[in-house]
Amino acid sequence: MKVFSVNQIRAWDAFTIAHEPIHSIDLMERASVAFVKWFCAHFDDRCPVTIICGMGNNGGDGLAIARILIQKCYAVQVYIVKHTEKGTPDFAQNLQRLHPQTSIQWIEQEAQIPTFTSNSFVIDALLGSGLTRPATGLIAKVIQQVNDSEATAISVDIASGLFADSPNAPSDVIIKPAYTIAFQCPKLAFFQPQCAEYVGEWHLVSIGLSESYEAQTPTPYFYTTAAALSSLTKARKKYSHKGSFGHALLIGGSYGKMGSIVLSAKACLRSGAGLLTVQAPRCGYDILQTSLPEAMVLPDWHWMVNTTVPDIKPYSAIGIGPGLGQDPQTLLMLKGLLSSLTSPIVLDADALNLISKHPDLLHSVPKNAILTPHPKEFQRLLNDQWKDDFEKLAMLRTFAQKLQLIVCLKGAHTAIALPDGSIHFNSTGNPGMATGGSGDVLTGIITGLLAQGMPPADAAIFGVFQHGNAGDRAAQKCTQPALIASDIINEMGW
Ligand SMILES: NC(=O)C1=CN([C@@H]2O[C@H](COP(=O)(O)OP(=O)(O)OC[C@H]3O[C@@H](n4cnc5c(N)ncnc54)[C@H](OP(=O)(O)O)[C@@H]3O)[C@@H](O)[C@H]2O)[C@@H](O)CC1
Ligand SMILES: [K+]
């Protein structure tokens, strides 16, 4: 799914109005009906609902939502903040449509701001994607009052005061909703950690905007959906054999860190690789042979760390990093490996940390190699610091494009940057996966997919998605706090 900027969404709206064709007031009605459908499906206990509206189209949505909820017998109280003299035409029309059904309270001064009770819902329709400046004055006061209350706030399209495509200042006043119900496509802000408390749990509702506009309008940003990946899962042919599914090589483990490479190796096999060899220091030999009899082991001559550049000819993909350590002899091995590569590679953990400490190595990393840093590792690779998450995203894009690499920046919505400049935000996973070994599992999955011949960009996007999917299934079984990396492996399957 494409993620558009506010300007593109506005153009999408206008394109749909012109080409479907549909009147803008009817499109607003569609959006409001979609919001109410979501609301009623989730909250049918008829708690009191307060709707706070601005005077733009977001406020117009709020008024239409009020009318539809009243028709469904919800107890609705409507407030409009008078922040301008004249509302938009669709706001005005919805005001007229609502008038006969309920009394509307105008907020023209601070004393008219209501208190929001704890067992009520506040539907936030003050400001939407038309935000042009931070919320101030009366609107800011209303927002503050909502945030200070214990009511459950639900934002229409986007939290009032939150910029969709650019960072807010830390002092900006923004609604902190429990939920955001966004129309048609997510906003870039939904993927930024710094915006988390201003987004809450977000859901998309379709309002039937033009499919042809979506198809023909370019954007660097995408949100991964299961439907977009369905073509990547293929049934195995009846006469296939283990040689049909590639031979992966994983390099990692060191004294005290053998668990990392064991987890990677298990995940690699579960991703469907036909054969797996693990190169590990001699201290890991018994550990690997015992814990994973399905894998072959290439023991390094060194007892504690990896030092030997393997003969890479037999392997269709290589993964290096989990538990690797940063010994100087391992560094030499990594240098040798990078200069002799012919197959696709995943670089993770200490492989990335070694590269960060020896930045010249970055230029030996082949095109389309997959890097899987968490933000701290990425910052070390960049050797630079970002001011905010939007700048981090821009730096990620530039880095991947300039070096022609695939970078999976791990997080709640892992951002996968491709050499073509696109960024793909993942849609699966949960905070239970923030646990030791989770990243090792991801490295194993992607290496296994590469070994089976999946193109690197697909392997990165699909692997991250399936890793999160398995984590979601695991969390359902054992709860998020109890989840450990092995549970992710046990739930793998597609
Ligand atoms: N596109 C779609 O697909 C659909 C969109 N729909 C809905 O429309 C919403 C966007 O509506 P919108 O463009 O009218 O903007 P909205 O956010 O209501 O603001 C209104 C005006 O407020 C002003 N203003 C800005 N900042 C301000 C501030 N800090 N404090 C005070 N005032 C401020 C600014 O005007 P200005 O003062 O700058 O001239 C702005 O124009 C969208 O989020 C969705 O809910 C659906 O109905 C149908 C399908
Ligand atoms: K809003």
TrEMBL record:
Binding annotation for AMP: K410, G411, A412, H413, T414, G439
EC number: 4.2.1.136, 5.1.99.6
Residues in coiled coil: none
UniProt keyword list: ATP-binding, Isomerase, Lyase, Metal-binding, Multifunctional enzyme, NAD, NADP, Nucleotide-binding, Potassium
Record-level GO BP terms: metabolite repair; nicotinamide nucleotide metabolic process
Cofactor mode of binding and number, as noted: Binds 1 potassium ion per subunit.
Gene3D superfamilies named among the record's database cross-references: 3.40.1190.20, YjeF N-terminal domain
Statement: the UniProt record of this protein carries the keyword NADP: yes
Taxonomic superkingdom: Bacteria
GO MF term (any one): ATP binding
Quaternary assembly: Homotetramer.
Entry similarity comment: Belongs to the NnrE/AIBP family. In the C-terminal section; belongs to the NnrD/CARKD family.
Name this protein carries in UniProt: Bifunctional NAD(P)H-hydrate repair enzyme
Species assigned in the record: Runella rosea
